[in-house]
Amino acid sequence: MIQDLHRVLSTYWQQFLYVLPKLLIAIVLLVTAIFIANRVSTLLGGRLRSRSHDPLLPDFLARLSKWAMVLLGLMVALNVLGFSGIVGSLVGAAGVSAFIVGFAFKDIAENFLAGVILAFNRPFHINDTVQIKDLIGHVEALNLRTTLMRTFDGKHIFLPNSLVLKEPLINYTRDGNLRQEFLVTVELGSDATPDQASTIILNYLRTIPDIQQAPRAPYINLEKASGTTADLRVYFWADSEDYRRGVLQLKSRIMQEVKQELLGAGLGVPALGQ
Q: pLDDT class for 158, splitting at 50, 70, 90?
């Protein structure tokens, strides 16, 4: 029994010594492929970023090229080890197992292809404020499978690329302009009219540097009027680069100051709303 065990171990050792040079070459090739992939990815990403204002597409292409070169190196290493026949058999059997493999990796392939479409279609840029379903936040990265979003309360959400591609996407900061609105109820009194209240509000809005005056000037619509009150809908355009802090805080400040302007003109303001 001991002799049989010794013979088996000796056989395995001889086979290991026979394969060892190929194994070392395969490891060297794989390590070299990983090193070259990292270098090429870094150089490619740097070149593309220098020619693009948005790092979204350069980063995605750099990651894609890195994994493609690593996969190529792995295939070469397998061929050196003599697994080309096994790889060929797997490829030959792909017709039989295509359905099973396709079903198993459906989500991965779907998210990867969706990432490619998003990288070239570019419905958003890095740091854009977007809304997908009920999620609102800044886009931080587009990976091979997921889109990373950071909400305004600091949460990081990894959304599958297929979800981002399929769902309606609202981009608040794409063109840099965003219209805001609010409703103000004005007590007119005996002498005032809705037009006079609108004039007071518009004159104030024209003095705010953060509000666009041309070509999108602020305006006011009369929504409802009674004997003593009028509901005025105020519209204005602002720079949306910083949506959460910039636009929304500007709107809050304007609502408070419009109320003070109307009160200073002798008009009551019983309500302010969205």
A: very high
